[in-house]
Amino acid sequence: MKKGFGNLRYHILFILIVAIAGLVLVRLFYLQVIKHSFYTALAQNQHEFIEKLIPQRGEIFVQEKNNTWYPLAVNRNYQRVFLVPRDVKEKDEVAQKLAPLVEISPERILEKLKDPEDPYEPLKSKLDDNIAQEISNLSLAGVHLGTERLRWYPQGALAAHVLGFVGFRGNQRVGQYGLEGYYEAELAGKKGFLRSERDALGRWLMLSDYKLEAAQDGANLYLTIDQNIQYVTEQKLREVMEKWQAAEGCAIVLEPKTGAIRAMASWPIFNPNDYNKVYSMEVFLNSCTQKLYEPGSVFKPITMAAGLDTNKISPETTYTDTGFVQIGGYVIRNAGTLSYGLSNMTKVLEKSINTGIVFVEKIIGNQVFKNYVEAFGFDRLLGVDLAGEVKGNLRNLNESREINFATASFGQGISVTPLAMAASIGAIANDGKLMRPFVLEKIVTAGGREQITEPEVISQAIAPRTAGKLTAMLVSTVRNGYDKIRISDYFVAGKTGTAQIPGEGGYTSETSHTFVGYAPAYNPKFLIFLKMEKPKGIIYASDSLAPAFSDLAQYILNYYELPPDE
Questions:
Q1: Please, is 442 exposed, middle or buried when counting C-beta atoms within 10 Å of its C-beta (0-12, 13-18, 19+)?
Q2: pLDDT tens-digit map of 325-338
Q3: Class of the CATH-defined domain 224-559
């Protein structure tokens, strides 16, 4: 019996040993094979593992008329160097050898190495390939090279103010300005996360189960911007800015019927790949949407629209211009102190007669005038999908002073954005409908779901019949007022504006120049808005901006292969 009992215990012990060994082998297989990638990642300073938790930023594309798409903002692999302080043995040596290569002081590198338990410390991104090779050749313990996907703008400065850029806010890379800022949430995607048991020091337990939820990549943006029109628009803006040594400018091309922006440019320009080299933060501001200016005579069609829409005047209504009008203790004169005698309302626009437009404002009354200014959207944000849009300043119209309404009738004493001015003239081109301007044609999620932007009417600013009458008057303005803007075989509607720039204590001698026009006038495909601040050696916008407008309009007419009007 004893012998049999001893054999039984032996067999039981043997089975237990085999079972335990089997469990150990299974666990080792689980750890070394099934979860190999996880623990390898932890062993490699958690770097590769962390990358799985970071989504890939959505990309941005522009179009051409044949519905093909080209990248404007993409993600690209760059080399970078990082430190594993706990593996660095000779800290002084590492700091001295790396400092000239990464352009960081030895003291700052030593600061990053001070925590001996630190598993990961980034040092520098976007390394030059030659520099990366030199660092590799040093073979320094605890110094590692890796790759990271960062934002790259393959077309450089093209549409820079529309795009914005991805830069640092604290330790985080986030979209700033333009589309990158406005659509940050959609472009950035959703970070993944890890759930795992931790020890008392907050470190992941190596033998613990974990749950990893992968990142969700950002959505791609497909823009209304046409890269060819954008390129030519920027080229023409650059030419006119350099020719007249202007301080600042902007250009917009939009579709009046939809509000789709086909081009938008601001000056001075910057390259979003090198945004950190810009000398002033002001350069990042899109002057089309983020800066106000007094528009001057380009505002006169808005006042004329109010007069026509209320039936207080018609294009044939006349008055006698004496060259000036007195409002209280103030005297308003025409440009060049000219006098035009008996004039109708069409001539008021053709010759840009200040006293004539004041005449219209007085006939309709201050409150009605203000109501129409607001109906054209100057008192609100238009809702363009770009970061930082500002609304107009109409404070002067909240006062009861007659002079404020008189000067506002020809665009002085009130401030608007160039985009608001362009959109309001676009409403005249679009049967009186003010459209929300937009840059995003569609957004496509990482899962392939498309969301297309639909045109949106903000307001019916004026009746269609009013818009038709005013368009005919603006066609006559181009034909009889601006020789350099006429385009053979096409009707073009347009208006210039030359306004004094306000300063401390009054108006300065410096001016802003504006031209806005649309074509073909009676079935408009596009509207062009051009503006520049403080040009030198030129007085009137009809001379400074007319050639640029004509060249750009002719290009777009040919580009879209639009048939002649006559």
A1: middle
A2: 999 889 999 988 99
A3: alpha beta
